[in-house]
Q: What sequence folds into this?
């Protein structure tokens, strides 16, 4: 059996890569992908703890996190499409005003 | 001796999937073309599904492939292709200092987490409860029924919200939709001509 700390370390590394991506990238779609990456790494933590505590409740949380991620992706991509229609760019630095 | 060999195999599985996930995750954040980032994220999700299998969470592994890699990433790729994004030029990047800030912050966060991991030690795994559909559904429809129903309301709100946000507003588009709708209600001869107009 692989030790729990290996899974937690991998999860931490993936989460940190996601955070670094939010800092590095300026493309709104890639920022969303980095957020998905962070959600995925947290899912790994939940499943690992669920396995090591012998309780499937953690996997239930993962299910709910996936639903929230799907809703977030749908609304977020709709916002990105609306943003692209008005500004013709996906650079988040360009979208710094509420009015056009 | 046989058990020792088994342990080695599971470790190898973990290392293979973990290294694949980390490399693909770096691919996500370092590519300039969003479509390559999307492909990297799909690889991350598939390798995480493999890790879920090693944690005996079969249902979550299947859902990870179907929902994440299948539905959410298709949505991302669809939007990338719909918007026909050109690669952004580096001149538009007003906050270059963030890139230089990202690397030390990345290393600092990794260091803090690894230091924290050393203190927790390695608890022994308790008895294996496989994450089959039966076991997951039992909790979902008994103790956690309310959160489950709340997620369905959330999905409904997301559907309505995204349709509202992504709709077109210009009068031209409204006219186009109205002619198309009228054409659908008219007899066949008129329908053909107006359909051509819509296509044109």
A:
């Amino acid at each position: 059996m692989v030790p729990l700390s290996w899974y937690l370390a991998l999860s931490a590394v993936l989460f940190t890569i996601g955070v670094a991506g939010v800092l590095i990238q300026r493309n709104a779609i890639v920022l969303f992908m980095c957020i998905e990456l962070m959600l995925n790494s947290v899912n790994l933590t939940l499943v690992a703890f669920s396995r090591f505590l012998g309780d499937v409740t953690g996997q239930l949380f993962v299910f709910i996190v996936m639903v929230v991620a799907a809703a977030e992706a749908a609304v977020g991509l709709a916002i990105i499409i609306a943003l692209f229609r008005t500004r013709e760019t996906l650079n988040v630095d360009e979208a710094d005003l509420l009015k056009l | 001796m046989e058990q020792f060999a088994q342990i080695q195999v599971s470790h190898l599985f973990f290392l293979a999937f973990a290294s694949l996930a980390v490399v693909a995750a770096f691919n996500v954040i370092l590519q300039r073309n969003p479509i390559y980032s999307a492909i990297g994220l799909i690889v991350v999700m598939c390798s995480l599904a493999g890790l879920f299998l090693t944690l005996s969470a079969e249902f979550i592994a299947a859902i990870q492939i179907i929902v994440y890699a299948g539905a959410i990433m298709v949505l991302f790729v669809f939007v990338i292709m719909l918007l026909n994004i050109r690669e952004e030029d580096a001149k538009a990047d007003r906050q270059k200092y963030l890139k230089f800030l990202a690397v030390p912050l990345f290393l600092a966060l990794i260091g803090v987490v690894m230091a924290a991991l050393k203190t927790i030690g390695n608890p022994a795994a308790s008895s294996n409860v496989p994450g089959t559909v039966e076991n997951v559904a039992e909790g979902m429809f008994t103790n956690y029924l309310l959160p489950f129903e709340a997620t369905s309301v959330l999905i409904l709100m997301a559907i309505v919200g995204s349709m509202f946000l992504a709709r077109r507003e210009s009068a031209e588009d409204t006219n186009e939709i109205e002619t198309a709708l009228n054409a659908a209600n008219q007899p066949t001869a008129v329908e053909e001509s107006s359909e051509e107009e819509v296509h044109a």
Summary: The first helix of chain A runs from residue 4 to 24. Chain A has a mean pLDDT of 88. Chain A touches chain B through 72 residues (CB under 8 Å). Residues 4-87 of chain A form a domain with the Helix Hairpins fold (CATH 1.10.287.3510).
